[in-house]
């Protein structure tokens, strides 16, 4: 399972870099324009992807308090997730923040031990049923969260007739089983 998580974490990093490059080719006004999605703009969707990564990885800190893998999460202390519309300078900083968060995810899953994947993370969003989930479940959630929102970005780019293709897995991400 760990090798699969590593390949998906690497895929997420590559996909995030590709999305950033595509969106970086747009004007700030085009990135910030309300496109009718829940997070309004293309940059809003992309910021939410980063926020989800930082949030979910942050939830793992307590469950991994006795694991050497926890060290990979310390870099998140220097990652700032913007809360409003982005100006051009904040947009540039977003790319660097994604790089740190994606690297932290790769480093984390690479360092996880089998027992770490089973460690329980207490959550409140299932109304206490279940009261906790394994680390492996949250890593799956992190992976699918990014894929889901990059899919929304792709749909908007398609409607704008902007070429984009970051949804397929490259053979470079084949896990070594």
Description of the structure:
The structure is a single chain. The protein is mainly alpha-helical and about 180 residues long. The protein has one domain (about 1-170): Four Helix Bundle (Hemerythrin (Met), subunit A) (Up-down Bundle), CATH 1.20.120. The protein contains six helices and two strands, in the order αααααββα. Helix 3 runs parallel beside helix 4 (about 90-110). It is globular. About 30% of the residues are buried. The mean pLDDT is about 90.
Give descriptors for this structure:
59% helix, Four Helix Bundle (Hemerythrin (Met), subunit A)
Number of helical elements: 6
User: Residue-averaged pLDDT, rounded?
Assistant: 92
What's the N-to-C terminus distance?
9 Å
Helix/strand order: HHHHHEEH
Widest β-sheet, arrangement of strands: 1-2
**CATH architecture level-2 label:** Up-down Bundle
**What is the assigned CATH homologous superfamily?**
dinb family like domain
């Amino acid at each position: 399972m760990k090798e699969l998580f590593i390949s998906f974490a690497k895929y997420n990093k590559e996909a995030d870099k590709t999305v950033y490059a595509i969106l970086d080719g747009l004007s700030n006004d085009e990135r910030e324009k309300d496109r009718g999605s829940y997070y309004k703009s293309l940059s809003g969707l992309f910021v939410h992807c980063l926020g989800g990564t930082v949030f979910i990885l942050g939830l793992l800190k307590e469950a991994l308090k006795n694991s050497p893998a926890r060290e990979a999460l310390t870099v998140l202390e220097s990652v700032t997730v913007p809360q409003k519309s982005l100006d051009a300078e904040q947009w540039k900083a977003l790319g660097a923040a994604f790089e740190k968060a994606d690297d932290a995810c790769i480093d984390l899953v690479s360092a996880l031990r089998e027992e770490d994947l089973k460690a329980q993370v207490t959550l409140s969003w299932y109304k206490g049923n279940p009261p906790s989930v394994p680390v492996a479940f949250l890593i799956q959630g992190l992976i699918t969260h990014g894929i889901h929102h990059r899919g929304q970005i792709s749909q908007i780019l398609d409607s704008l007739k902007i070429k984009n293709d970051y949804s397929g897995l490259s053979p470079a991400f084949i896990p070594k089983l």
